[in-house]
Amino acid sequence: MKRALAAVAVALMTVTGLVATTSTSASAHSTRHSQSHARLGYTQVVVAPPVYDLVTSAGITPAPLNGAKASAFKGTLAAKFPIISYRLRGLQIRHTGGISLTAGTATISLSDFNIDLARGRVSGVVNGTVGDVGRVDLFKIKGSDRGDLGLVRLTLTDTAAGALNTTFGVDAFAENATFGYATPRPFARF
């Protein structure tokens, strides 16, 4: 498991350019901040096509929040979340923005995602009909089985699956089920 996550981390950092620096100063290992999200880029998350089909057939409407963007992509939905900082030590990428899922009066919002490659998890802040849950681990990071959709695969944690099922009164979401695919694009134009 550790070997697989290390390989994903190295591939992710190599592809995204996070290791493009050769600086050995302490600042090369600290968190980077910027007023301009365009300079730091974004992470694109593509919803797995079967999940998108399930969501739309259940009448659940996704909508971007707080500066995120969403659009159609290869028969599913792609959302872009601005990167606000990253840390080479600990392999972390922090984002702003989020997405809401709404069906009738039931709603859940997921926002302010943190990718933590060292732990192989993506956390986010959860709010909605189920209450204000706060920051929890939402996804586990796995190797992608659909390179055309993203560099890594995001599978649901038990907490995320439970929150989705409770919010929408279903039992369709399960721990370790693929939710989508992610590709960080640091320094790309948002």
Secondary structure layout plus pairing:
Layout: H1 2-16, E1 32-33, H2 37-40, E2 42-47, H3 49-57, E3 61-65, E4 69-73, E5 76-87, E6 92-95, E7 98-103, E8 106-116, E9 121-128, E10 134-143, E11 152-156, H4 158-168, E12 178-185
Antiparallel strand pairs: 1-5, 2-5, 2-12, 3-7, 4-5, 5-6, 6-8, 7-8, 8-9, 9-10, 10-11, 11-12
Keywords:
globular, 4 helices, Htaa domain-containing protein, 21% helix, signal, single chain
Regarding quaternary structure, what we see is: single chain
Question: Helix amount, in percent?
Answer: 10-25%
Integer tally of domains: 1
Gyration radius (Cα, Å) is: 16 Å
- End-to-end C-alpha gap: 33 Å
Helical stretch tally: 4
The H/E string reads HEHEHEEEEEEEEEHE
Q: Overall 3D geometry?
A: globular
Residues in β-strands, percent:
35-45%
The helix-and-strand class reads: alpha+beta
Main sheet strand line-up: 2-5-6-8-9-10-11-12
Mean pLDDT equals 83
Q: How many extended strands?
A: 12
Protein name: Htaa domain-containing protein
Organism: Aeromicrobium yanjiei
Keywords: Signal
Signal peptide: 1-28
